[in-house]
Amino acid sequence: MKKLILFAMTLCGIVFSLNALAAQEITAQEAVEKGYKRIGTIHTTAKATSPMDAKAILSQRADEKGGNYYVIIAGREHGRFSATAEVYE
């Protein structure tokens, strides 16, 4: 029983630490005020079925591009959701 509890606690710690490493959405004003460097643009495909799915895809793509933050600059709903964002480090 103790091993099961220890395993569950370890798994929770890993999940929470991975979320801390994901790129975060910020506002354009924050990017300017804090002097973050723009490193590119990313977009979602029509795979996202909700705004939260689109944000998760943007965060993942910002991570892949080496960014820590992203600013959503456009969004569209056409049966599915798509979005475009600028990536910052």
TrEMBL record:
Residues 1-22 form the signal peptide. InterPro entries: BhsA/McbA_stress_biofilm_assoc, Dodecin-like, YdgH-like_sf, YdgH/BhsA/McbA-like_dom. The keyword Glycoprotein does not apply. Gene3D superfamilies: Flavin-binding protein dodecin. Keywords: Signal. Pfam families: YdgH_BhsA-like. Residues 37-88 form the YdgH/BhsA/McbA-like domain. The keyword Transferase does not apply. This is Uncharacterized protein DUF1471. The lineage of its organism: Bacteria, Pseudomonadati, Pseudomonadota, Gammaproteobacteria, Enterobacterales.
